[in-house]
Design a protein that fits this description.
Radius of gyration: 21 Å
Number of strands: 11
Helix content: 40-55%
Number of domains: 1
Strand order of the largest sheet: 3-4-5-9
Number of helices: 12
CATH superfamily: NAD(P)-binding Rossmann-like Domain
Bound molecules: nicotinamide-adenine-dinucleotide
CATH topology: Rossmann fold
Length: about 350
């Protein structure tokens, strides 16, 4: 929305992808949507040849830790092999550019703080020099892809950038992630499942701040460099869930919501811990602040208020994501336009 650049949005539309989330910009001339899989080398070659991009921002991934525990194969496929494919397509395209084009080109890989492993309560936050020690199939696959990215820089000179960001939250987040899951379960009067005793600590960043950080790194970052992105906002999971409960109690949503009269906190239910559950993540983001002048603009209190309000105001989006109706819509819409592959 806030750039003159043309954005070619390449997405396979897995269960996590949703064209409804793009409705605001779908008809904008600055945005083109291509449904493709990053594991498909030929498709990626076509995209580079057709659009001649100045830069790649690589976000496509399997991203849910719980899913990576029950089914790691997709994570290796997309996060490791898909990244390899995309890197090779980018390298082929980049090596055919003239000197100026090669110098200008950027490949930004959007990674996670989870690649660093976890911290004890008194440990110093992760810096860009913290060695990788991933714990889950998800974080291991993201760490692997980061290694590939660095190797393509060192070996071939591809001008890459890596960002390691903490937990995001905000509008349009798929309801399997902690914050939307809690909001939506509470509205239906369902239990709010909290792993263990809810003592695990995450650093939270509003999604718009992450987006601004990615744009900043792309435009101002030094090729070959890694930048940590964090919210300076460490919270225990139980604290996050209680805050959501209090916001909902205060907002008193109507529209058939089933929040107990005694308040949302009644719904909190502790469940057996996730295997290999990381205790704490915390980010030292001095580099991006000092070198690139980025800092988060949203506080946790205001970001969470906005997020809860967004889910209350958009029941249709939620309903369609949950029922898979948007998939039907995609199929019907694209069949109407004579497109194949749905
Ligand atoms: N959400 C967070 O808290 C967070 C924090 C740090 C880093 N990240 C990273 O940011 C990126 C985006 O995260 P998210 O939370 O939006 O994830 P998400 O799971 O909500 O969305 C992933 C998107 O990638 C698409 N996709 C998946 N496999 C694909 C493939 N093979 N080809 C093309 N598209 C494919 C999906 O359709 C979906 O639109 C990921 O790389 C993730 O590791 C996320």
């Amino acid at each position: 929305r806030d750039t003159d650049c043309q954005v070619i949005n390449v997405d396979k539309l897995t269960y996590a992808g949703n064209l409804d989330s793009l409705s605001e910009i779908m008809s904008s001339p600055g945005h083109i949507f291509e449904q493709e899989d990053i594991c498909d080398g030929k498709a990626m070659e076509r995209i580079f040849a057709q659009y001649q991009p100045d830069a790649v921002m690589h976000l496509a991934a399997e991203s849910h830790v719980d899913r990576s525990i029950t089914g790691p194969a997709e994570f290796i496929q997309t996060n490791v092999l898909g990244t390899y494919n995309l890197l090779e397509a980018a390298r082929n395209f980049w090596s055919g550019l003239d000197e100026q084009g090669r110098a200008r080109f950027r490949f930004l890989h959007v990674s996670t703080d989870e690649a660093y492993g976890d911290l004890r309560p008194d440990d110093q936050p992760f810096t860009e020099e913290t060695p990788y020690l991933p714990s889950s199939p998800y974080s291991a696959s993201k760490a692997s892809s980061d290694h590939l990215i660095r190797a393509w820089n060192r070996t071939y000179g591809l001008p890459v950038l890596i960002t390691n960001c903490s937990n995001n939250y905000g509008p349009y987040q798929f309801p399997e992630k902690l914050i939307p899951l809690m909001i939506l379960n509470a509205l239906e009067g369902k239990p709010l499942p909290v792993y263990g005793k809810g003592e695990n600590i995450r650093d939270w960043l509003y999604v718009q701040d992450h987006a601004r950080a990615l744009h900043t790194v792309l435009v101002k970052g030094r090729p070959g460099r890694t930048y940590n992105i964090g919210g300076n906002c460490e919270k225990q999971n139980i604290e996050v869930v209680r805050t959501i409960c209090d916001i909902l109690d205060e907002m008193k949503p109507a529209n058939g919501c089933r929040i107990p009269t005694a308040g949302c906190r009644e719904l909190i239910t502790f469940v057996p811990d996730r295997p290999g559950h990381d205790l704490r993540y915390a980010i030292n983001d001095t580099r991006i602040r000092r070198e690139l002048g980025w800092f988060p603009q949203e506080s946790f209190a205001s970001g969470l208020q906005k997020t809860v309000k967004w889910y209350l105001d958009n029941p249709q989006w939620v309903e369609r994501v949950r029922t898979g109706a948007y998939r039907e819509w995609i199929r019907a819409n694209y069949e109407m336009q004579g497109r194949e592959g749905f």
